[in-house]
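Write out a record, fold above all:
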Amino acid sequence: MFLREKIQEMSNAGIPAKTRDAFTSAFHEGVRRGMTNANAMTYAENNYAELSNDKRKSLTNSDFAIPDERKFPIKVNGKPSKSHAVDALARASGTKYEGRVKAAVKKLFPDLPSFQK
């Protein structure tokens, strides 16, 4: 199944756009890691960040890359979450938050392919 078909399937099932975006971000992270599309799809299915509203509300400010605005969660219950960090990088790309999010994620996950030269 190709990414577009998977996203359409998720949409038809009523899965929220934020969750579909997180899945797409995880898929692209797999591709950046050099995976085939099939392997990247499996990677995405196992690693995309999904956070309910109740769960998000329970996070502390320090769980976010932008703690003063509670934007871009990168930790869950105080523990670093690689899937959330990858999603935060993707969502912050091209925004005024990009530099701050990159810095926060790099502190937690300096080994991410995004930071390799």
Q: What stands out?
A: Strands lie at 64-66, 71-73, 75-76, 79-80. The chain has six helices and four strands. The chain has a mean pLDDT of 84.
